[in-house]
Amino acid sequence: MDRTSLCMLRLLLVGCLLAGSWLPVLAADVLRLATTTSTDNSGLLRAILPQFERQHGMRVHVIAVGSGKALKLAQNGDVDVVLVHDRRAEDAFVAAGHGVGRRDVMYNDFVLLGPRSDPAGVRQSGDVLDAFRRIADSQTRFVSRGDDSGTDRMEKSYWQLLALQVSGTPWYLSAGLGMGEVLMMAGEMQAYTLSDRATHATYSARTGLEILFQGDRRMFNPYGIIAVNPRNHPQVNHAGARALIDWLSGPAGRAAIGAFRPRGEQLFFVAPDG
User: Tens place of pLDDT for every residue, the chain, 274 residues?
Assistant: First the structure.
């Protein structure tokens, strides 16, 4: 090997070593957040996360999927922290040792949407189960998320409480899509669907769907944040996850969530202190 080639090889090796020494620093500057589509579709994260990023010198990479998929990503160590809305699954996730440091962040509620004509008579319902029974009895088109999200699991819990098997029926469509896409689909089909209030508020002008039933205590929709357990996945950015958890549940994050009011409507409410 001549002198020129040897020098080039040395420079290449030095460059590789320097690049390798920077990898932990670069990784610490990025936080991978898996979250439900409602926090993304509503515009909440785009509104509040830049404040956290500026304060902590950290970029948050958001992966918006259903709650079930978000928790699976966290279980596999593919993200650092999750913000989801399925309390039963969250508790099971922590109990199994996959996550640590769970905290309540905020809440809103689910709403049952449909066309103004309301062919199933949902407006006359006495409670959410009565509303879903009316849809099934009338066999009016219903679009389900079908994506193992928190919304999807809540919707399916209503059918289960009614002991109704709706999957596979001609009027029930399982879309396998995010909330925004399902709302657009239901609007085009003039169908019923269950949505979180925030995403409906963001898409209502484009779908023409109306809130036909709301207010049942069984439609309460709390959100929690959990760090991936670093004992299971030492490579995760646990310091960044803890920083985001502390920020969202602290004064700055709570103020940012409360100030998020597109068109003057408050879509998320901070969880009670403590």
Answer: 555 444 444 444 444 444 443 334 344 589 999 999 889 989 999 999 999 999 999 999 999 999 999 999 999 999 999 999 999 999 999 999 999 999 999 999 999 999 999 999 999 999 999 999 999 999 999 999 999 999 999 999 999 999 999 999 999 999 999 999 999 999 999 999 999 999 999 999 999 999 999 999 999 999 999 999 999 999 999 999 999 999 999 999 999 999 999 989 999 999 987 5
* Dmax (CA) of the chain: 88
Nearest alpha carbon to residue 78 among 30, 124, 146, 32: 32
Give the pairing of strands 172-174 and 142-144.
parallel
Number of Cβ atoms within 10 Å of the Cβ of 85? 28
C-alpha dihedral (7, 8, 13, 16), degrees to nearest 10: 140
- Record the pTM: 0.83
